[in-house]
Amino acid sequence: QVQLVESGGGLVQTGGSLRLSCTVSGGTFSSLSFGWFRQVPAKNREFLAYISWEGGRTLYGDNENGRFTISRDNAKNSVTLEMTGLKPEDTADYYCAAARGDVRVHEIWYDYDFWGQGTHLTVSS
After folding, report:
1. How far apart are the C-alpha atoms of 60 and 116, rounded to whole Å?
2. Is 34 exposed, middle or buried (0-12, 13-18, 19+ CB in 10 A)?
3. Nearest 10 degrees: CA dihedral of 18, 24, 29, 32?
4. Above 90 in pLDDT, residue 87?
5. Where are the beta strands (DSSP E) in the chain?
6. What is the pLDDT of residue 123?
7. Which of 2, 39, 59, 95 is deepest in the core (most CB within 10 A)?
8. What b/e readout covers 80-104, taking b as 16+ CB neighbours within 10 angstroms?
9. Does residue 120 contact residue 26 with C-beta atoms inside 8 Å?
10. Contact in structure between 79 and 22 (CB atoms under 8 Å)
11. Whole-angstrom Cα distance, residue 42 to residue 64?
């Protein structure tokens, strides 16, 4: 059973940077693709970033303006999301998701097979 644990959330000032981590156990890490999503109350889960199982392809959401970067470290079984230029509207619960191989539609949350419990980010104005 694949298990994902997010960490790195916290309180950041507007314009600051933060790196979220997703530690993965179970399964074969190198065969998994990963996505990052976020969600706030009364809003749908928003796609942020995707990285393919071989690490050669990354995709990002439409509303990030190049501020987010996803990466993976197969030696450490971890996936990261680096965020810069944070804004109050980035305040949300951030989730790491995994899928066997590549997902069919990277932006759709239910195309992923495994989810972590989330880590919260608050960006103060």
Report:
1. 19
2. buried
3. -70
4. yes
5. 3-7, 10-13, 18-25, 32-39, 46-51, 58-60, 68-73, 78-83, 92-100, 114-115, 119-124
6. 98
7. 95
8. bbebeebeeebbbbbbbbbbeeebe
9. no
10. yes
11. 20
Could you please report the per-residue DSSP string of 66-79?
Answer: T-EEEEEETTTTEE
Q: Residue 123, Cα to own-chain centre: how many angstroms?
A: 17
**Amino acid letter, residue 93:** D
Distances (CA, A) of 75 to 3, 24, 29, 57, 68: 17, 11, 9, 18, 22
Locate 34 and state its tokens. 């990963």
Token pair 């981590």 is found at 21
Centre a 10 Å sphere on the Cβ of residue 27 and count the other Cβ atoms it contains: 16
Listed in sequence order, the residues at least 6 apart from 28 whose beta carbon sits closer than 8 Å to its beta carbon are none
Give the pLDDT band of residue 1 (cuts 50, 70, 90).
confident
